[in-house]
Specification:
about 260 residues, mainly alpha
Length: about 260
């Protein structure tokens, strides 16, 4: 990849990781259009960039949760939230482990990506139907949202879209649903980064160009991601979340029709 391609991919990741329109789905589209063979380590770097964005955005909440865990104090609100994050992370890890090969196969299947975008649109629009969103997250909610995050490993399924929508459909308070979705992202990315680093490090041919591309992509993603993270928060609070369903339907239908017509 040249630096223009790195820059564009980093911007796409920063925008689409938080807006409910699937970062992985957009990256698959761009990579196939440009016939790019993106190194796994670069993909990891982009996710680390969005991880930095969410850590900065939720720095107070994360600090308070870590303090509660260090004190083994699970009776405070932060301590209870730590337990909910652990509970929600379990189904994500299980789905990722059991269906890793299946999920990865979808990255080379544009038709599957198109269908996934359509499904994401339906889930986003369904969140509009939720009323009386004023409850706190319980353990069952955490399991459902964690399962949704695991399903979002499919390219075209928006992680933020499906996790926040699940919370809203469970009538969780808007701010709590957003916060929990963001917090649940942190251990998922850390775990995936560690796992990928251990398996892919030996395959990485380290050069100055590769190192610069990774660092440059990470920084661009972090900056853009932070901006759009704040935007998403405002969108959900103003109850405009479902509007993104129309975009997902449009791009999903376009992908499906393109794939069908290019087949015949």
């Amino acid at each position: 990849m040249n630096f223009i391609e790195v820059f564009i991919l980093a911007i796409i990741q920063g925008i689409t990781e938080w807006l409910p329109i699937s970062s992985s789905g957009h990256l698959v589209i761009v990579q196939q259009l440009w016939s790019l063979n993106v190194p796994v380590f670069f993909d990891v770097a982009l996710h680390v960039g969005t991880l930095i964005a969410v850590l900065v955005f939720l720095r107070r909440e994360v600090a308070n949760i870590l303090k509660a865990v260090a004190r083994l104090d699970f009776k405070t609100e932060e301590g209870k939230l730590a337990k909910l994050i652990i509970v929600g992370s379990v189904p994500t890890a299980v789905l990722g482990f059991l269906f890793q090969d299946l999920f990865e196969s979808f990255f080379s299947n544009l038709l599957a990506v198109g269908v996934a975008f359509m499904v994401t649109g339906c889930i986003l629009y369904a969140s509009k139907l939720a009323h009386n969103k004023n409850k706190s997250i319980n353990y069952f909610d955490a399991l459902l949202i964690g399962t949704a995050q695991g399903i979002a490993l499919i390219p075209g399924v928006s992680r933020s879209g499906i996790t926040i929508s699940t919370g809203l459909l469970r009538r969780v308070k808007k701010e709590k649903a957003i916060q929990y979705s963001f917090l649940l992202y942190i251990p998922a990315v850390i775990g995936a980064t560690i796992g990928t680093s251990l398996t892919e490090w030996k395959n990485l041919a380290v050069t100055e160009v590769i190192v610069f591309s990774i660092v440059f992509g990470l920084l661009v993603t972090a900056i853009v991601g932070y901006v759009f993270l704040k935007l998403l928060f405002k969108v959900v609070v103003k109850e405009k979340f479902h509007v993104f369903a129309f975009y997902c339907w449009a791009i999903g239908l376009l992908i499906i029709l393109t794939r069908i017509f290019t087949t015949f």
